[in-house]
Amino acid sequence: MAKNLYKLQCPVSSQYDLETRANGKVIQYITLLPAAASAQKPAVKTGQEGTTSFTVYNTSDATAFWQKP
User: Fold this and answer.
1) Full domain range(s) for residue 46
2) Distance between start and end Cα atoms, the chain
3) Phi then psi for 27, rounded to 5 degrees?
4) Quick check: 31 and 58 in contact, CB under 8 A?
5) What is the pTM of this model?
6) 68 lies in a domain?
7) Lower CB count within 10 Å: N or C terminus of the chain?
């Protein structure tokens, strides 16, 4: 199965009402990518949807991705 796995993504802070858009809310995710894909993508990607901000942190470091919050 590992050969078919491309990426895993989870919220930086797992909490109630995480994905609800709200005025001034910041939603953050961390994405675990294979080393080859990680080199092609920016380490931090930001975006805006209405008044909600999104930040995605890309990494190929499995230890950092799986650490306890």
Assistant:
1) 2-10+22-63
2) 26
3) -115, 130
4) yes
5) 0.78
6) no
7) N
